[in-house]
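Kindly go through the following sequence and its backbone structure tokens. Advise at your convenience whether the structure tokens fit the sequence:

___
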Amino acid sequence: MSTPYPSSLKVGVLLFSEGTQFLDVAGIDMLGMLEKSYLSVTPMPEALVAKAFDIEYHFINEEGKGPNQMTGGFKVEVTDSIATCPALDILLIGGPPPSYRPTLAVQKFLQEQQQNVRAFLSVCTGYIPVLFSGILENKTATAPREFLGPLREQATGVKWVDKRWARDGNVWTSGAVLNGQEMMAAFMREEIGKEEGRGELVEMVLGMCDVAIRGQEY
């Protein structure tokens, strides 16, 4: 059995100064609903709230400068650069523009984080920096459906699957934008929800979200 998640989590969200899809990273708020401070003002039983987490958030871009422009006119305050970001428990990677190519510094950051985090989750075009970092080599992964054909020809070392999300070890990838929220729900169930005493907590939180969970198959 894997080691339980600590009661205090460090959660990072990697953003891109070239622009980041806002809905790609919205799933972080689903995870945030597992915070003690959030649940303590809900009718949830105290015994379940006690199983929740304290979460420290890190909003990261390469330069550490913000606010970071998102789609939809949103802007997110940046707390860390890739150089100052601490060791994380969970890293969520939003989607940059399809033309984005990561610098060597970003690639190194992703490689190091993937080796150490409990969960490494990329949404939609978030696969791009992960792929260029070599992390998907010899792994099963997915991406937006319209990119899968070219990817199968260009990145032959990856087993590309036509699914809403895919998991290979601690690496999670998703297809379209909102599939990221389904992937987050699956992560919460498969990882946190299987820990002793936290299954009911996760199910109640997902019920509060009422996120559509249609399964991996389109």
Remarks:
- The first helix runs from residue 22 to 25.
